[in-house]
Amino acid sequence: MSEPVRVLFVDDDPDLRKMWASILSTEGFHCTDASTVAEALVLITRERFDVLIADLNIGSAGDGFTVVSAMRRVQPDAVTVILTGYPAFQAALRAIHEQVDDFLTKPADPEKVITCIKDNLARGRKRPANVLTYRLPQIISQNRQDIIDSWYDAVEADPELTKIPLSREDRVDHLPDVVDELVRPRESSFPVDPEVRSSAAKHGRKRREQGYTPSMLMEEARILHKAIFECIQQNLLMVDISSLLTDLVKMDDTLHRVLRFSLEAFLELDTVPDAA
Question: How far is CA 269 from CA 11, 169, 211, 217, in A?
Fold first, then answer.
């Protein structure tokens, strides 16, 4: 007697997890559920699955892609299905169809889900030998200009920041240096390149002269964080998941250090040598 098909169902809604566990079990599948990305990643590394069904947004927008990406690397033969409550998103899912086997619009009809699973298992589509992935600094480097453009558009749409009219050149100022610092190999004994530290200090003094407030300086930094994370989200299937958390910590640390140097200069504080 053959073993039942093992399904991993990932959704942050407890009622949906309970409902689908019951439906899939009734159809003869062995169903395991997870409520978070972290929980799903642990299961993927510890247990074998034939099928992954993940909600597109598990807590945060696009989290389902993180789970799909991990499954593709650890268990490349597993069928992957995304559930989305946004029909308009189907076009984007088709664009990454080499990574996601199928997608279904919520609320999904149980019969369609069962048929989807069986059809994809029967199809037995051959997987690519290797899924090309990149470390986070490479992703940022490849999308450098898009990040800067996205940041600039968001800043120009901010009513508080645009109270101070500036040219694009003055608005962007040292931002390219900051983005380049995020992708610099950490071979130097300095946690932040001295030239970038100097550039950040000049930026802080310049913003003070332009009439910025400390909160406006911090808002610009927040918008940069958001632009970078949106870039990461859009490229999740290309990111090396095994190093993602480490790279995120390093990136966030660098961004906070650069902001600190700008704020110190802005406030004309005596800087203390960075012992980190």
Answer: 48, 27, 18, 16
Paired strand residues for 84: 105
Phi, psi dihedral angles at 5 (to 5 degrees): -65, 130
* CATH topology (fold) of 6-123: Rossmann fold (3.40.50)
Q: Which residue has the tokens 């899924």?
A: 131
Cα–Cα separations (whole angstroms), residue 183 to 19, 92, 139, 145, 172: 45, 28, 9, 13, 18
| CATH 1.10.490 domain locations along the chain | 136-266
The pLDDT mean for the chain works out to 84
Residue 95: what pLDDT? 41
Tokens of 265: 């200069």
Element (H, E) at 83: strand 79-84
- Cα 26 to its chain centre, rounded Å, is 35
Residue ranges, CATH 3.40.50.2300, the chain: 6-123
Residue whose tokens read 């500036």: 166
Tokens of 155: 């800043």
Residue range 136-266 forms a domain whose CATH class is mainly alpha
Tell me the C-alpha distance between 193 and 230, whole Å: 25
Query: With a threshold of 0.85, does the pTM exceed it?
Result: no
Buried b (16+ CB within 10 A) or exposed e, 241-254: beebeebeebbeeb
* Cα–Cα nearest to 133, from 12, 266, 269, 242: 242
224 Rama sector, left if φ>0, alpha if ψ -120 to 50, beta otherwise:
alpha
Single-letter amino acid code for the residue at 215: S
